[in-house]
DNA sequence: AATGTGCGCAACCGCCTTACC
DNA sequence: CGGTAAGGCGGTTGCGCACAT
């Protein structure tokens, strides 16, 4: 399934990792951490380059890393974020505790890409049929927006989400604003709704980050998005409906 | 049973960003 | 401010496996 092991001209081992190598890397990092990836293989007794060690740890050996089938909710998050941001795998990984960017990327290419493309083609055809009859793209949203003129449009949503996702520090002075990432291209009847099983992935399942501390999936999401505790605590649960990815 | 073909996924590669001097 | 090293990210590749012929 993977490249057969071999040594390059510098004596660096490439290709599939053996159990022995995995054990060495795991044992070393659990004991000493990974302050310097480049030096790590030397001290851990591995004939690998630092990059290879980092990749193996991040994608496979980390204690909290998940393998196997993606849930419907995870698929939905990937689809929605991809619609807004494109191939930002690390951003998606930050929102899906236990999933690596590599795994998300692979899953997108092998499972989701074609499916989403088909869904959007179907949608486009339907929309072109109904061109003469303008109607709400997302009927669920419009009543809310009409009630609240302060809500933002689709372009602003992408911009703000990009900032939120890339931000490493909180914007504590920001007032609670509804940040919707609802998908205008894939309506709610095409993509499954997250809110139905919202608790499953964001709140029920504890998550173990690298540091070893336990935090809830929702804490993990907010911390990975750079949202401060105070800001999160101001937030009522109704405010971050993942159905539309309203973050706060 | 043998061979061909496509898929899935771990790992590699190169570029970009960040940190440090 | 520029140079360098290290980390991180996204695109691509190689190969084992399952399924089709």
TrEMBL record:
GO MF term list: DNA binding
Subcellular location: Nucleus
Name of one Pfam family that matches: Myb_DNA-binding
Entry keywords, A to Z: DNA-binding, Nucleus, Repeat, Transcription, Transcription regulation
HTH myb-type domain residues: 9-65, 66-116
Positions of the Myb-like domain: 9-61, 62-112
GO CC annotation: nucleus
Name of the protein described by the UniProt record: Uncharacterized protein
Coiled coil: none
